[in-house]
Design a protein that fits this description.
The chain is built from three helices and no strands. It is an all-alpha fold. It has one domain. The termini are far apart.
Length: about 45
């Protein structure tokens, strides 16, 4: 893969992770919520 393609891939993945953590919270927090109500997790 060319260098600029790897840079784009890395940047997109970082932004996606940042978006999900801002939207849903940290993975640890989200896991606690999902364990409390697993049915809701499947709806979201």
């Amino acid at each position: 893969m060319k260098k600029y393609s790897m840079q784009n891939k890395t940047a997109w993945e970082y932004n996606a992770y940042e978006f999900w953590t801002k939207t849903l919270g940290k993975p640890e927090e989200r896991a606690k919520k999902d364990l409390e109500n697993p049915i809701r997790m499947l709806k979201f």
